[in-house]
């Protein structure tokens, strides 16, 4: 009896000690996600032994780790000042979390004290069989790309790397309890660059550009002690309709590498509003494009610091 592609359960929970499984549960740590993929990675060790035959001898597997990727909806908890379910995921992507009870939750990039999470992915054979296969990823850290398109649900594309664990056969973990809020659609949003709201864009994305590296260790299982975020280069792109230079002069901004503030507010309901802000973006280039016969500009950008650890913020209110 095979496993169903559409039937999976994803759990994630912050670790109190790096690599130590905090045992996420379906009741408290279930994450609504799509496009869930678990990839077992390994370094193939070829053995170039010289013999009378040209036939190769068997290779071995050296360092081993797991990569897991999935996409979540951008939505709040439904209560202002209460962290959303994706909060632990953002912290494991190098964000700090600041909670103003009853008001807001702010995520900003951190340079130290990066959290890690344990991720469980259950493969479901059939709902009635009671047979499950568990992929366990401990010590996971990663990267997030926020994708926003007009008239669509904003998405967060996560990719994590974590320590290698063998998959195991498990019994039914129970019914998962998911965050009940409905994600806001990207419409009637407030989008500004340099306080100008004259820009009509179909899409905008912001990728944190985290550099996640392995920590090789001869004493650790799989030859890896864990994973660290050692650098980040937040960047993105947007595609506005072409404007008069007098309306907005992208070319002068680009030529002078002028820093501008970018902000977009999605949603209107309390507890389910998200503002993504970058106070100091610079433009990489400006390329001519076309959208259904309408002239557009394809503009990639990168985010810079204002005072430090503030080049991007995600605020839920």
Helix content: under 10%
Oligomer: single chain
Mean pLDDT: 96
Number of helices: 2
Kindly provide the radius of gyration, computed on alpha-carbon positions and rounded to a whole number of angstroms. 22 Å
Count of β-strands: 19
Structural class, by secondary structure, is mainly beta
Low-confidence stretches: none
Largest sheet: 17 strands, antiparallel
State the shape: globular
Report, as a whole number of angstroms, the end-to-end distance: 46 Å
Beta content comes to over 45%
Number of domains: 1
What is the ordering of alpha helices and beta strands?
EEEHEEEEEEEEEEEHEEEEE
How would you describe this structure to a colleague?
The chain has one domain. Helices cover 3% and strands 48% of the residues. The protein contains two helices and 19 strands. β15 (260-266) and β16 form a beta hairpin.
Topology record:
Layout: E1 8-14, E2 34-45, E3 60-73, H1 87-91, E4 95-100, E5 104-109, E6 117-124, E7 132-149, E8 155-163, E9 168-170, E10 190-193, E11 201-207, E12 210-216, E13 224-232, E14 235-240, H2 250-255, E15 260-266, E16 274-283, E17 287-291, E18 294-303, E19 313-316
Antiparallel strand pairs: 1-6, 2-3, 3-8, 4-5, 5-19, 6-7, 7-8, 7-9, 7-11, 10-15, 11-14, 12-13, 14-18, 15-16, 16-18, 16-19, 17-18
